[in-house]
Amino acid sequence: MTIDLTPYLTDTGPKYLAIARALSEAIRQGELTPGTRLPPHRQLAESLAVSVQTVSRAYAQAEKMGLLQARVGSGTWVNALDDARETAYLRGHEPRHESPLIDLSIAHPVCPPSHHLRFRQVLVELADHANPDVITACRPIAGLPHQRERASVWLQTRLDVPGDMEDRVLCNGAAHGLMLAVSSVVQHGDLVLTEALTDHGLIALSRTLGFQLRGVAIDAEGVIPEALESACHRFKPRAVYLTPTQLNPTGATMSEARRDAVADVLIRHRVWLIEDDVHALLEAPGLSPITARIPQLGFHVTSLTKVTVPGVRAGYLTVPRGQLHHALPRMRATTWMATPLIFEIADRWIADGTVEVMAAEQRDLLAERQALAARLLGHHAMFSRPTSLHVWITLPDAWRAEELQQQAEQEGLAITTAVPFMVEQTPPPRRIRVSLGAEQDIARLEDGLKRLAVLLDEAPPPMMQIVY
Hints:
- The protein has 468 residues and is an alpha/beta fold.
- It is built from 16 helices and 17 strands.
- The protein folds into three domains: 6-80, Orthogonal Bundle (Arc Repressor Mutant, subunit A), CATH 1.10.10.10; 83-108 and 356-457, Aspartate Aminotransferase, domain 1 (Alpha-Beta Complex), CATH 3.90.1150.10; 127-352, 3-Layer(aba) Sandwich (Aspartate Aminotransferase, domain 2).
- A hairpin with a 2-residue loop joins strand 7 and strand 8.
């Protein structure tokens, strides 16, 4: 086929990198679609007035970036594996009794026997004393009034989320709340800014709803205010989606000063904020959400999932004053109303302080596991929070992330690379995310971390030692 990359070419840097970046931009804008066969090296070289060697290097670079796939005897094709990779990641590993695979791949809280006991106890209480509305109600769509009222007070006093009962929507987990928030203000084709590495759920949501994503540079505290300022000025986004507390996958957490600076940028540019605060309860009280600084622009989402039990899909969406009428039709269209029985459990746990007890227990359990990871893997460069679900590890020079992931699976370990969290199709960072909560037996976790330590300390098998 014939393609025209000239609209996407820049004069900066080596020619082969400029061509690779042009291919990336053409793919991002839909000019080149997955499964498209690219022209032979010589044909593209002639059309761009460069050498065949330059095009060969550009194709090789684009293949390393995950954009292209070279097939022996068939040519070079635009990579069509993204959806398959995402589906495989979301499908994950089927739960099996005493599975030999040690799961260090999924964001999952530790669920000790005390959590299960509390769950059974509250079900017994509901069986004896629950209001009939809990099983017969089908409106109001935003949630039963007593559940919303208690949640509203708790959100204000515990998490410093502004608003009152009329600004709150009960939703089926944080993922559902984020979908409602994004779809309330973002239309098909709109641009949303987010961290350069962000939650994979947002990337999937962008494909589902058809909006564009742009990544903004991050550091150890999350999004960099100066980079966000520049991106807002250049791209005029419809909204900005941020995770200020324990960003997935890096664990980056903004200081209060960083949150102030980010809020100032959003105010200057009058941009909607979608704040993913699902990890708020994994930090001790004291951090204030960005939404508290800009309540007129901020949609705030949190849930109980990361500190109680994952099956309690109790999510809380707070909308800016006057925006509820946008969120409710989307609530009705996606689920009608959140499950009242789940929120009756959450309501009782909030009322009697169980949520805070379970959150404190979760932080203690994760701190123990973080200490274990530091002891076994700490001689490698890694970043984590004391009570985070993950550690973010820089690989030794000998390893590439996907190679390590494949070798780890052969060794009975499931780990996660940066690929599911990447907004732009650029070379993935040589890092892995190691999750500490999915294995409930700490002895199995220790065994898995020891196996991983051995892998990291060794060179890859000879067949993986490819020179580019």
